[in-house]
Amino acid sequence: MKLASKVAIITGASQSIGKGIALRFAREGAKVVVNYLSNKKLAEAVVAEIIENGGDAMAYGADVASEQEVQAMVEATVARFGTIDILVNNAAIDPRQKWNEISVADWDRVMANNVRSQFVCCKAVYPYMQRQQYGKIINVSSVTYWFGKTNYVHYVASKGAIIGFTRALAREIGGDNITVNCITPGAVKTETELAKVGSEAAQDEAEAELKTLQSIPRRQLIDDLDGAFVFLASSDSDFITGQTLNVDGGWMMH
């Protein structure tokens, strides 16, 4: 088990990619905090699955853009598990809007949920990681940063900011033996993505197009992604920091 006895907070972990990371971390021996914003039932189902398989986890509802709520989550984590070793900043929103129809309020909401949340969470866990001179922070960006995406200007801008934040923070806290890295997932097949696409025919069309863009011509699944998170959360990556790992089946290469 690569994460035996480690304590991990995963934001936005009640479904989709976050859920997959939580389940994989638990299988690798980590004690997991399943953060959610509003769907307590889904988060508790993730926790139940972890416990049924012999792991340890708890669900915690918090708006990760709120300093007060994040601080309370961190304190609850330490009270339950004793420390924090790993933070995965996964929570995000991605509304579809034409760029000139995005209001300032829309822009600010995306930046708060996608960028400020990562800053707030990092700041809250840092004292505990600094004290123990150990920590792994993994920020989630997006493949859309590499190529831009029509009708997602605010989302793509937020994901670019995350890469810059990752690099700068890695410079500042490397001396505390804390690594900060970033993952850019590709077009991962999740329940939320399928709901956005709509009909089964539209889903098939979208998948066919993706296969022509990727070097590995099949749809990316959550299981294709979680191994990268385990790597960056484990001792295998102790001398890697400030990096962005692109996991997209060879869609974008850099």
Account of the 3D structure:
- It is globular, with a radius of gyration of 17 Å.
- Helix 1 packs across helix 9, helix 3 packs parallel to helix 4 and helix 4 packs parallel to helix 6.
- With 254 residues, it is α/β, with parallel strands linked by helices.
- Helix content is 48%, strand content 15%.
- It is built from nine helices and seven strands; from the N terminus they run βαβαβαβαβααβαααβ.
- The model has no long low-confidence stretch (mean pLDDT 94).
- Strands 3-2-1-4-5-6-7 form a seven-stranded parallel β-sheet, with helices on both faces.
- Helix 4 links the parallel strand 4 and strand 5.
Order of helices and strands: EHEHEHEHEHHEHHHE
How would you write the strand order of the largest sheet? 3-2-1-4-5-6-7
In helices, the fraction of residues equals 40-55%
Q: Proportion of β residues?
A: 5-15%
Quickly give the structural class: alpha/beta
- Give the tally of β-strands: 7
Figure out the total of helices. Answer: 9
Q: Cα distance, first to last residue? A: 31 Å
Low-pLDDT windows of residues: none
Gyration radius, rounded: 17 Å
Identify the overall geometry: globular
Q: What does the main sheet amount to?
A: 7 strands, parallel
Quick overview of this protein structure:
With 254 residues, this protein is an alpha/beta fold. 48% of the residues lie in helices and 15% in strands.
